[in-house]
Amino acid sequence: MKLRQLALDALLLKTPDEKCRALASLSLSGAATLSSDAQIVSTPDSRHLTSETLPGRTARPALVAPAQLARRPVTSVEGRAALIHSLAHIELNAVNLALDIVWRFDGMPADFYRDWISVAGDEARHFALLHEHLATMGYAYGDFSAHDGLWEMAERTREDLLARLALVPRTLEARGLDAAPPIRDKLQGVGDERGAAILAIILADEIGHVAIGNRWYRWLCSQRGRDPVSSYAELAQRYRAPRLRGPFNLAARRAAGFDEQELAALQAS
């Protein structure tokens, strides 16, 4: 099978377990697939797709506007479960986003597709860790409402890879670099050591994922003869990216490849 076709097939799967199994299978048997550039960059058959089929998902959780999500204190089991559920939903969305960027955009080097299928596997592992932890509290994925902001930005940027790279991994997913430490500390503060440990794993991996987004964003800017900083500002405005608010995890962002000019622009916005 061709890698981009496998990514599309996994994206269309409806249940999280099916997606995670598909990615685990690809990781186990993918050495031959990943070694052949021709197998990687070939175009998948997407003629059967409709707007209703992407991404494959179950009826639960119910998707609502962010303002409609109930706020619960993490001092209660229900509150901690709701927080872990929201993180699991983000990670599952990140699986879908990585699979989508692999199948949707052609004309990139084979290493681009290798990178993002690796990211998808990491995100699936994060989801599994969070879902297992959620089960220890007596809950499952789908038991709480969630919002769809990450996928909505994927929809907005579906025609332009540069916009996708600028506004998903480098904007929405990079917010996780800022959010993860205080969430980790909050969980630790209420005695949820396992939850805090999972957040530490996710933060370490997400630095690498955002670095992949930065690397390919700059590569594509170079190919198109565009300045990365001014292009980012223009794309953020055109595609209505949310304004990022501090405090920012500057150490993690530097480790993920943001340069000082970008960090200065971020803090001045």
Structure description:
- The longest helix is centred in the C-terminal third of the chain and has 32 residues, at 193-224.
- The chain has one domain: Ferritin (Up-down Bundle).
- Helix 1 packs antiparallel against helix 2 (16-35).
- The protein is built from twelve helices and no strands.
- It has helices spanning 3-12, 16-35, 37-41, 77-104, 110-136, 149-156, 161-172, 175-189, 193-224, 228-238, 250-255, 260-268.
- The radius of gyration is 18 Å and the shape is globular.
- The model has no long low-confidence stretch (mean pLDDT 92).
- The chain is mainly alpha-helical.
- How much is the average pLDDT? 92
CATH topology: Ferritin
Q: What's the alpha carbon Rg, rounded to whole Å?
A: 18 Å
Reading the helices and strands in chain order gives HHHHHHHHHHHH
Strand element count:
0
SS field, number of helical segments: 12
How much of the residues is beta strand, in percent?
Answer: under 5%
Q: What is the approximate shape?
A: globular
List the domain count as a whole number. Answer: 1
Helical residues, percent? 55-70%
Low-confidence stretches: none
Distance between the termini: 45 Å
